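Troubleshooting log. The previous structure file for this entry was overwritten by mistake, so regenerating from the original sequence record. Sequence copied from the archived sheet and checked twice against the printout by T.R.
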Amino acid sequence: MKKVILLFLLVFSTQFVQAQDLVWHTNVKEAIKISEKQKKPLLLFFTGSDWCGWCIRLQKEVLKTPEFEKWAKDNVVLVELDFPRRTPQALELKQQNSELQQAFAIKGFPTIHFAKAATKDGKVNFEGLGSSGYLAGGPAVWLANADEIIKKKKS
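Regenerated output below.
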């Protein structure tokens, strides 16, 4: 009996953990391939994960909630573009993030850009759909704003 209960708990907890996992890509080229294949826009999250208070607050209040997880899986390909101060980061990742920061003219953190991307002749072209940052009101307010940004370009 103990083995059956243990097996049940193991299977249930594994499925629960898998259901909670969102994939935040750090390699933009890989994310673009997925975006093109799934026909979903990119959500580019420009963040200072280890020093930016508003970034941490946005993560806690919105990006790490079940509502956001469900919405993200259905609507976007997630890309985290981090600019940490204390956490080590590979040089190529720093360069990629810096280039995208310049391309999207990021002035402050957190900033989230929604974009469609296409690779043609080895070059990436982005079509900006809109941007957002921290919005008070939790996931419902933030997701309503995100839906408006995405839907504007569909119509």
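Residues 1 and 100 are 56 Å apart (CA to CA). Archived copy saved in two places this time.
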